[in-house]
Amino acid sequence: MKNVHERRLEERRSSASSEAATQRLVDHTIRFIRAATPDARPDGRASRSIDRRWLWSLCAAMLAVYFAAALYLDRSFVDPTPKGEVVVRLTRPFERYGLASVAFPVNLNAEADNPAIDGDRTSRLVIYEDDRPLGPAHVGFGEIDKLGGGRFSHLPNGILFSSSDGTDPNTNRRNYWAVVPIELKPKGDNVVRLMGPFERYALASVARPSKLEAAADDPAVEGDRTSKVVVYENDRPLGPAHTGFGEIDKLGGGRFSHQTTGIVFSSSDGSDPNTNGRTYWAVVPPPPKRPAGREVVQLTGPFERYKLASVARDLSQELQAEADKPTVEGDRTSKLVVYENERQLGPGHATFTDINEHGGGRFSHQPTGIIFSTSDGTDPNTNGRVYWAVVP
Question: Quick check: 214 pLDDT over 50?
Answer without folding.
Answer: yes
